[in-house]
Specification:
alpha+beta, 2 domains, nine-stranded mixed β-sheet, two-stranded antiparallel sheet, 27% helix, globular
């Protein structure tokens, strides 16, 4: 019977499948986008490539380290062939951000801000964009008392915050929005950043930007590309300096280069709407491996808050390569899976486009 094929027959099926598909197609079908990016950049060693693959990808005959009596699935041959076809690199190259790991980060100075009840680390408001984000007073701020109890586990505290405080809160929407100002584009985090409990302001939000270069051409494709229907995106021009801040506007997706090809320099941002974000502090959150974030959509003409997306991330356990922290695979609040199959990849655009709705005839970004 078909489900009782011998091991040689399974192997033959796997070889035929491999021969009929291109390696990049296989990788796109089998691997999550963040892992795919790491593999294609060649920044993972062989053992790590295989170890990172989900058990379901490796097939029924693989239990995470051994073969079961049922034998390998045909997809195993496909997956291993793709992993083996990538170049090997040294352990020193296995990070985005090479070199010796820096000392673990510590928060030493805190300041009180208008936007939330807990004082925040001073580095969170060290830029004009950070100061503005933390000065926004939203319609539904979190209470000072998070409800935490000292005997709670990290998981229980995380789920409590998700239930009581997280969510997408939309107060007003706008139609036919061709683009917006992304007021505070995060820097691309390194692997060292993602292994540090305190380094990033909001690691559960910033982690997805590791898939993009630190420029508007690359970042902008998240909002303006096939299936992402904004016609343009604007950002502050960080190269212009704080005192003479100017702006960039990117448009026109290039399918060959996988980036936006047209960049204009502006003295003043032309967008009517803006999106910013900020880290959210709750009592004793980071020591439990929990980080919070608020993404805020505002009307620049009235300074009115149009919507808020509040989320929490949880990293715990053994972590990546025996480290205690690995924010790249942190858990997200479970209720968001009711709307998004992959909240870590889909929710940012999904939330923003539900508030600032692109033109209905923009079936494909131009």
């Amino acid at each position: 019977m078909a489900d009782q094929l011998s091991r040689p027959a399974l192997a033959m099926q796997g070889r035929r499948r491999l021969q009929s598909l291109r390696p990049r197609t296989l990788l796109q079908a089998l691997l999550p986008p963040t892992m795919l990016g790491e593999l294609l950049r060649g920044t993972l060693g062989l053992r790590q490539r295989v170890a990172l693959l989900p058990p379901t990808t490796l097939g029924e005959g693989w239990d995470g380290g051994r073969w079961s009596s049922r034998g390998p699935s045909p997809s195993l041959f496909v997956t291993l062939a793709c992993a083996l076809s990538l170049p090997l690199v040294t352990q020193a190259d296995n990070t985005v951000g090479k070199g010796v790991a820096p000392p673990k980060h510590k928060w030493t100075e805190f300041v009180q801000v208008k936007g939330q009840p807990e004082p925040v680390p001073a580095e969170w408001v060290s830029t004009p964009e950070g100061q503005f984000a933390h000065s926004i007073v939203i319609p539904n701020p979190v209470p000072k008392d998070s409800g935490y109890r000292w005997w709670w586990s990290a998981k229980k505290y995380f789920l409590h915050l998700c239930e009581k405080e997280a969510g997408e809160f939309v107060f007003k929407t706008a139609e036919n929005v061709e683009g917006f100002l992304f007021m505070r584009p995060p820097k691309r985090p390194t692997d060292f950043d993602l292994k540090d409990l305190y380094k990033l302001e909001s690691p559960n939000f910033e982690r997805s930007f590791q898939a993009y270069r630190d420029d508007i051409r690359s970042r902008g494709r998240h909002f303006s590309s096939p299936g992402r229907n904004y016609l343009y995106v604007e950002e502050p021009d960080m190269a212009a300096g704080i005192t003479t801040r100017k702006y960039l506007r990117a448009s026109t997706y290039d399918g060959k280069a996988f980036e936006l090809s047209r960049v204009e320099h502006l003295d003043i941002a032309s967008s009517k709407y803006a999106v910013t974000w900020r880290g959210l502090r709750r009592p004793r959150d980071r020591e439990h491996g929990i980080s919070g974030a608020e993404v805020i959509v505002i009307n620049l003409e009235s300074n009115a808050v149009m919507a808020i997306w509040r989320d929490f991330g949880l990293t715990q356990g053994r972590g990546f390569l025996n480290d205690d922290v690995w924010w790249l695979n942190a858990a997200v609040c479970p209720q968001f899976y009711l709307r998004y199959s992959r909240p870590d990849l889909e929710q940012r655009y999904g939330f923003i486009s539900s508030v600032l709705r692109p033109p209905p005839d923009s079936k494909e970004a131009k």
